[in-house]
Amino acid sequence: MANYYDIQDILMQDETVSTVFLHKANGAGFLDPSSEDNNVARGSVVDLPLWLAQDLVQRQILHIKLPSCFNARHEQCRPNLPLILENVLRVRKEVQADPACVDLHSKCPFYYEMGCKLVELSVDPTLGPFLLTTLQGRYKDLLCKALTATLSGNLKFLPHLTEEETRLFEAGRDSVKAFKKWRLQGPRIEKAAILGRKRNRDATPIWS
Amino acid sequence: MEKMQGENEDGQISSADENYNGALIHHQSILRNKRCLLAYMYHRANRLQRLRWQLGAVLPEDVKELLHPSEKEFVKSYSEALSSYMTKLDIDLAVDITPPKDPYIQVRVLNNIGEVLLGDQSTSLVRNSIHFVKRSEAETLISQGLLEEFTG
């Protein structure tokens, strides 16, 4: 339960996964846009957020299909549709070719955390090592850029980073800023940050 | 094989189980809402605690008007608990967050405050005047934005 209050975890669990219902569920028809009555029929394919899908999978009410951004080379991939298989294999090939250039943010902003959750839930055993190698490939480049970034440069690849990588990047940049400030012996006690912000509502300043 | 297993269980599943699944989905949604709300309140309370350490016992007005009455209660009791603890130990824990180099510091006054008790003497702080004060007292006033460190 250490993640209960963690905002990143809450946001991450809002991502949707495609699931197949193994049993019927009454009264939950709002989840499935194609159901006429208020029921979800067996075998229907529904997109559910991860927080809901996770619990239902553990009670074996449904099956999670690995999202295509993780390249589901999985039994659920139907072999008589080779085009889908090709698209899905492309992600892993892209990552194996050059991990530093792949735009992971557009595929899934919480790529690694989501992958970790899915490793526990789904059948694909190669997902864990794949995530590790992806992060390894991107980490060195990320660290170099974070520690040498100036204010203006290095903005092109920032939208390609996932949320976790962005946090690492900002931590690196802040530590370099703090080091430079210490080096130049800047002011050590400062005005509290909250006072500097101007509120839209009040016209009168706080301290006049 | 999966399909066969499903059909097998299907024979044993009564309609009650179908309703159970639907109820489960609703229950999970309720739990999710609860989690989001609790996390929001938790992070708000955390920010208030941090403000207490940065600004001292008095909150700025525009923050106060955004607080729920129970949050105001929280701030009051947290502040009381902190101050009783600090008086028992007889040190002010909220100053000297960064290790000081000097016990005294030169400050410039940004706004007119009037008479303030600094150390043993009360000094009148006029705008743009420079004073040489003890660091612990200056720290609370600097973080409230009333003084500024003078690096002449």
UniProtKB/TrEMBL annotation, chain A:
Keywords: DNA replication, Nucleus. SUPFAM superfamilies: GINS helical bundle-like, PriA/YqbF domain. Residues 90-182 form the GINS subunit domain. Residues 5-56 form the DNA replication complex GINS protein PSF3 N-terminal domain. Gene3D superfamilies: 1.20.58.2050. Transmembrane segments: none annotated. It comes from the Eukaryota. One of its GO terms (cellular component) is GINS complex. It is found in: Nucleus. Pfam families: PSF3_N, Sld5. GO terms for biological process: DNA replication. InterPro entries: GINS_A, GINS_bundle-like_dom_sf, GINS_Psf3, GINS_Psf3_sf, PSF3_N. Belongs to the GINS3/PSF3 family. This is GINS subunit domain-containing protein.
Automatic annotation (TrEMBL), chain B:
Signal peptide: none annotated. Keywords: DNA replication, Nucleus. Pfam families: PSF1_C, Sld5. PANTHER family: DNA REPLICATION COMPLEX GINS PROTEIN PSF1, PARTNER OF SLD5. Residues 17-89 form the GINS subunit domain. This is GINS subunit domain-containing protein. The gene is LOC112273504. GO terms for biological process: DNA replication. Residues 101-151 form the DNA replication complex GINS protein PSF1 C-terminal domain. Belongs to the GINS1/PSF1 family. It comes from the Eukaryota. It is found in: Nucleus. GO terms for cellular component: GINS complex.
